[in-house]
Amino acid sequence: MLKAVITDIDGTLTDRRRRLSTEAIRTIRSLVDAGITVVVASGNTVCSLDMLCKMIGTDGSIIGENGGLYRFRYDGQIHVTGRQSVCWDAYHRIEEHFIAQGEVLTLYSPEYRFADVAFARTVDPVEAAGVIEGMPVRVIDTGFAIHLQYEGISKGSALGDLALLMGLEPSDFLAIGDSENDTDMIRRAGVGAAVGNATDDLRKAADYVSKKKYGDGFVEIIEKYRPEIV
């Protein structure tokens, strides 16, 4: 039996314009009201996730910065596993490369990030990855931003650590996502599901792919697996 839900936000609970699905939020609240833990896992910062958890109604357990940090609400401590200094080294190399081509990169919330480095999708992420080839840093294209994360760190690795704090196993979770950065998470979970707008790679990794897209897809997945959730 599944005991908890972990879900991506952008593209999973939102539409392409990052507008939250009201039906998805109602569904999450119904789970929380039934005593089921819902964890949000995102590339976003802690402060952004704290505000979102409060408004949605979850208990504040999070995975942020694409697995670079996590927090169990009843532990309260932010655990940072990413190595941001290495990511900054990679960023400066990428920045220098694109400046030489006349491109200026735009950072996202650098003062609030503790594990990764994120910037706007104004350059080719594949080209950016080529620039830092050989460095222990991954380029993650979420479809909303480009993130630089230390090698071996992912939402999936954070799920393993967070589950331990919660007295659970990754196999106790239903994981839902839409993008490349969700792949390891849904593979490690007991059940991994993708919404209908998911990338091809995520769809291949998922146990189930919803017919509906975005927030409606999230609702479809929860309705399918709700009988299996304690």
UniProtKB/TrEMBL annotation:
Enzyme class, UniProt record, top EC level: hydrolase
Enzyme Commission number(s) from the entry: 3.1.3.18
Residues that coordinate or bind Mg(2+): 8, 10, 178, 182
UniProt xrefs under SUPFAM superfamilies: HAD-like
Positions bound to substrate: 155
The entry's keywords: Carbohydrate metabolism, Hydrolase, Magnesium, Metal-binding
Protein known as: Phosphoglycolate phosphatase
Annotated organism of origin: Methanofollis fontis
Lineage: Archaea, Methanobacteriati, Methanobacteriota, Stenosarchaea group, Methanomicrobia
